[in-house]
Model the fold of this input.
Amino acid sequence: MNWKSHTPAGRVLIGLSLPILLTLLILYELRGGTGLECPFFKLTGLYCPGCGSGRAVQALIRGNLAWSFRYNPMLYVLGVPSLAGVLYEYLRIVFFPRRFRPIILPRWICASLLVVLFAWWILRNLPWFPCFKPG
Done:
């Protein structure tokens, strides 16, 4: 059986998987989920660009926007546009497979996002910027 996204079976599978996964995540976090431990921080003692994102999502699900932003503000800078892109692709694949085109970002945007990500990674590990440390 072909499970590619353009087949009806693939569209149904993708169409069901995202709502189910989001529901499970929200239920897990509302029932006292612990978030995730960062293996990079555990091994090196340095913060990765995503450190604090698990706690940020947990705080967001519980309705605490201020703490969510404090845990990892980059989640809002890069995460919200990424989430919008994922949602667009989800809707395109599941409901409008032939009507909308896939998102294709120019290389300069991808390079710029990588520069921002690496700058964030470096800045949050410098001792002169304690405000960038998670939580």
